[in-house]
Design brief:
By secondary structure, the protein is of the alpha+beta class. The chain is 21% helix and 35% strand. The radius of gyration is 16 Å and the shape is globular. It comes from Candidatus Campbellbacteria bacterium CG10_big_fil_rev_8_21_14_0_10_35_52.
């Protein structure tokens, strides 16, 4: 395992450089909304249809469910840095935010105080395209990453991710994506 990462049940994956005592972390997480970023990589398949990359989680909570890669925005980290870090650490790739969105205008914002057993999160969701690299076979938090067409999604979904995909489907029906 990467020496700069430590995994603790009920705490997820936390860089050691940002480590705080467990009791303090649990208190903060219980009482304060946590800002996060989710990445939804998209592409055009060979048949010209739109596909999205989903992961199957292998850690608590939501183990065995499908969803998006994402994580906390760390102290002193800009949103664009979180996007880059998540893409690199989780998938081993570089990404670009799909226009017309930018690092200050995400595709969607979800404020869901109940879907995660650990915390109340506020998630900025970004549609991204992979610009460089090959997707890892597995990651610290997931066992499988797989491309799915919009009309053939797996289940069950983790956290609020089913809502994200419903918003995306509604958007695409009105505004086809230019990939």
């Amino acid at each position: 395992m990467n020496q700069t990462i430590k995994r603790v049940k009920n705490m997820g994956v936390v860089p050691l450089s940002k480590w705080i005592p467990n009791v303090l972390f649990q208190t903060i997480q219980k009482n304060t909304p946590i800002p996060c970023v989710d990445l939804l990589p998209v592409r055009k398949a060979k048949n010209g249809k739109f596909e999205m990359l989903l992961i199957k989680r292998k850690i608590y909570p939501e183990e065995g469910k499908w969803g998006l890669v994402g994580g906390r925005i760390l102290k002193d980290e800009l949103t664009k840095e979180t996007i880059k870090r998540q893409a690199t650490e989780e998938f081993g790739v570089s990404v670009k935010i799909l226009p017309p969105w930018t690092e200050i205008t995400p595709f969607a914002v979800f404020n869901d105080p109940v879907s995660d057993k650990q915390k109340h999160f506020v998630v900025l969701t970004f549609l991204v395209i992979i610009t460089k690299g090959k997707i890892k076979e597995s990651g610290l938090e997931w066992s499988i990453a797989q491309w799915f067409p919009m009309n053939n999604l797996p289940s069950p979904f983790s956290f609020h991710h089913k809502k994200v995909l419903a918003v995306l489907a509604k958007y695409i029906n009105k505004n086809p994506l230019s990939l």
